[in-house]
Amino acid sequence: MSALRVAIVGCGGITLQNHLPGFALCPDTCVVALCDADPAALERARQQTGVVVTSTRFEEIVTRDDVDAVVIATPNFTHAPVAHAAIAAGKHVLCEKPIAMNAAEARGMAEAADRASVRHMTAFTYRFVPAMRYLSHLVREGVLGDIRHYRSCRLQDWGTRNLGWRQVRKLAATGELGDMLSHRIDFAHLLVGPVQRLVANLKNLTPVRDGHANDTDDWVAILADFRNGATGVLESSKLASGRNESWRSLDTVEVNGSQASAVFITGKWNELQLGRAGGPGLEIVPVPREFWTWPGAPRDPGVGDPLVTFRYDQAFEFVDAIRTQRPCVPGFHEGARVLLVMDAAVRSAETRQWVELPAEG
Questions:
Q1: What is the mean pLDDT of the chain?
Q2: Could you say which of 5, 146, 198, 235 would form a disulfide bridge with 258 (CB–CB 3.0 to 4.6 Å)?
Q3: Upstream peptide bond of 330 is cis (omega within 30 degrees of 0)
């Protein structure tokens, strides 16, 4: 296959920090076009990349004959329209999460991509952390035994600064639920399986952020029952004062099984905490080197900050799936599965009731 030509729609921080460096490491892959509705952001990206094909209209970019694949890194409400336009033009699509405003919209994207026989991928970037990959391996190999309980906790201090479109419900659908808890719902699916029912609560504790109205959630918690009989507790907040942000803040996932328990901490990319049944307690276990990069990825794990560079493997997975004509991991169906849980959480918070989730076909 000749060089894979990628267009990126949305030129904000995620594109500059994750997507561009990731594709730069992929052999025979080049970013050939950029799009952003904000001319200033588009010009900054053009200057930083040297890409000459630019437009403020995604329709002009995703239909180009010299584009093979499209990355969508735009506000949530635009994901579905851009994705459908790209799919209709026969382009492979990598979309930031949450991939749509609701589960029905996400399923429509996945089904359209399947019908068109194009590769599709959801940017659940934290799946690529080496320690999460190793934890998933241990679960699959049965090291933890039967999974009984899942817990995730993500607490950051974002204060009351203006979050732009992310604090506008009609543009984002949800706040902390979609921003941060969506990743942890995906972890739950990866490590435990589908959710059967849940009860949830969402809170908006900052109706004004830096002088601008906020009608999205700052805090969310879910109590879940999984179809395999396990239970789950998931919590996430933007307002944990003094907790800092990013990997410096509290971000843990714990899986308790009949034979062992394991704890994943995002900031500890190369280790887990593991405790055996009847043992002395949790002990630090190093992540084997074969899990430090995604299978086949050209990235050198000794180069750069490993708390950043793991993200570049996502681009390789997308490119490799296109070249080998196999499904991307994770695809749009995984993105839709998470949105099904998110929709149920919103409904539960509104009705103050448990919500049953439909069985997956």
A1: 97
A2: 146
A3: yes
